[in-house]
Design the sequence.
């Protein structure tokens, strides 16, 4: 089973995910009610991207705690630094 996983990418502190307290290692099961199973990271990023101010909903699995939660975030523009 191929999944879209948060741990493939860092979670930036000033990003919507970082501000919501999400961390690397969480698994994304669904994005806006669409299964992420079998999708590449690039496909998932395409589903996550959108106009700033719009909302996106994730079904997140925490493999360490064996918990599933739904999180809704508001997309925003942010800049990352690579060094």
Sequence:
């Amino acid at each position: 089973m191929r999944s879209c996983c948060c741990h493939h990418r860092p979670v930036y502190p000033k990003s919507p995910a970082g501000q919501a307290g999400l961390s690397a290692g969480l698994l994304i099961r669904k994005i806006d009610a669409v299964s992420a199973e079998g999708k590449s990271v690039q496909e998932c990023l395409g589903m996550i991207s959108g106009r700033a101010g719009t909302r996106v909903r994730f079904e997140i699995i925490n493999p360490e705690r064996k918990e599933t939660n739904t999180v809704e975030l508001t997309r925003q523009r942010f800049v990352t630094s690579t060094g």
